[in-house]
Amino acid sequence: SARKRFAAINIDISDGKQGKVLAFTLTGAWIIKKIDIRGVWFGKSLFAAQYLQQPGEIFDQHNHDQSLAAIIKYLHSQGYFQATLRDVITRDTTNKAITVTLKIKANRRFFVRTANVQLADSAALEAKLYARVVELAQLLQEKIYTKETAVDVIKAIKAALHAAGYMSPHIKLSKTLDSG
Predict the structure, then answer these.
(1) Burial grade of 152 (CB within 10 A; 0-12, 13-18, 19 or more)
(2) Residue 7 pLDDT more than 80?
(3) What's the whole-number mean pLDDT along residues 44-73?
(4) Cα–Cα distance, 138 to 107 (Å, whole number)
(5) Three-state secondary structure call for residue 94
(6) What are the b/e assignments for 92-104, b being 16+ CB within 10 Å?
């Protein structure tokens, strides 16, 4: 449709010798032709799902930038904290088409070496409950970090505390990345 293909349609009306003269100015929009994801062998659809625009749509720089941030956030949630993402936008001026190339370098995936429990008031928990909380937290140890796993463990800890009468515990997950 014209609405999808043009960024602007301007109509100028002026007086002519035999009546009104209409002058149309059509400004073509840049249309996404293709989204090319490189650097990953598997799961390209998971990364494509993070990209907010689809082929055939008008390219929007703001949505593009938001998409890049979403892909990095997704990589972090999967334990790739040192991932890099480079984008290349190639413009085909003849067809007003854009190819978006996303070059993903996941780098190494992080493992949880240790899971520590710190309590604001350790005296408030009985020893058996404290041991259960530590046991649950240690389910993260020696495993690949994913946000889903961390959320599941936090839910289990909250359930254990709730069952013991702690109705609204505040749990904070903090990550420390080794440099080596």
Answers:
(1) middle
(2) no
(3) 93
(4) 25
(5) coil
(6) eeeebbbebebeb
